Amino acid sequence: MTVKNLTRGLCSAAAALTLSFASATIALAETIKVTDIAGRVVEVEKNPSKVVIGEGRMIYSIALLDQENPFARVVGWKDDMINYDPDAYRKYLAAYPEIKNLPSFGSPYADEWNLEAVISLGTEVVFMNLGNLLKAQESDIIEKLEEAGVATVFVDFRQDPTANSIPSIQLMGRIFDKRDQADAFSDFYQQQTKLIYSRVSQIPVEDRPIVFIENAAGYNPSKCCTTYGAANLGRLVDLAGGRNWGSMKFPGFKTKVSLEALFADDPAVIIGTGANWSEANPDTIAVLFGYEADDATVQDRLAGLAAREGWPELSAVKNGRFHSVYHQFYNSPYHFVAMQAFAKWAHPELFADVDPEATMKELHEKFLPIEYSGVFWGTLNSGM
């Protein structure tokens, strides 16, 4: 072998060695260990290209990170956003028509879930809700996915949203390799919530009005009511300067309420939740909040809820403190917008300068790939 050939061979070997080392480094970097919101240590592919979400409304969160296309890595989901927030679905469908063909696998915790189809797609990560941890454990779905090489990661925007939303966004940011986007939203979230906390801390307890949250007000016209305890929207009421009626009555997340007990206590402020459920339940009398809602219809629906038997005699209705808010805030990292509305309703003068509408618009302009439109909260006009 000539010196020239020997040199060429050594260079080729060195290049191959360098390439192998680089490939090995890249391979190692692609797998990371994270601690999910359930406290589980999970080994997961970094920046996965194929993700299944156990609830369609997780798109609210993914959109904050994958701002160019929230569906770019989603290969399957549940159809809850299609059924219960169709305005949002149509908004995203207009921007990303390909999602019309996105497979729906139903609930990961039920027999309807097609595990084989999930695996066959080459899924790398399945995101699940913390509130369904027990169901997932009982169904053995976590173990079955792990055996197939699919990681499961639990996030939470519902059980304890003010404690877990930012850790969940940060967790997803690490996995998606979108930490800058996660940090930017986290900063915005802190700014918007601290605006409330700094003032509420100065309000004496006796000056905080009792607030009743009616969950899914009017979804079923013949049934009333359920409300939240010191969790989820009930927790948001307490943090926004009110005293949540449910927090004072029972422990836990949510419960049924007798109208007699509600009427006897006559809370100062009433807030119902609503969304566009007209397609899932055509008979609903709920306020159809969402990206396609309009003010006139919101007022008609609010008036209908306030006119139910016995309700016109309540102080909140008489005093112009009968409100409603977009139901999906209960399962979204955008819940700080609802909290700002709650604060204004509880203490109008103290929060006169706070503008949840401007906050919602800024959220969309800075972080979301869809434009803001529609109506997401409202107050019954006096005289109706």
Automatic annotation (TrEMBL):
Fe/B12 periplasmic-binding domain location: 50-354
Coiled-coil stretches noted in the UniProt entry, renumbered to this chain: none
Keywords: Signal
Signal among keywords: yes
Signal peptide: 1-29
PANTHER family membership: MOLYBDATE-BINDING PROTEIN MOLA, VITAMIN B12-BINDING PROTEIN
This protein's name: Ferrichrome/ferrioxamine B periplasmic transporter
Organism field: Shimia marina
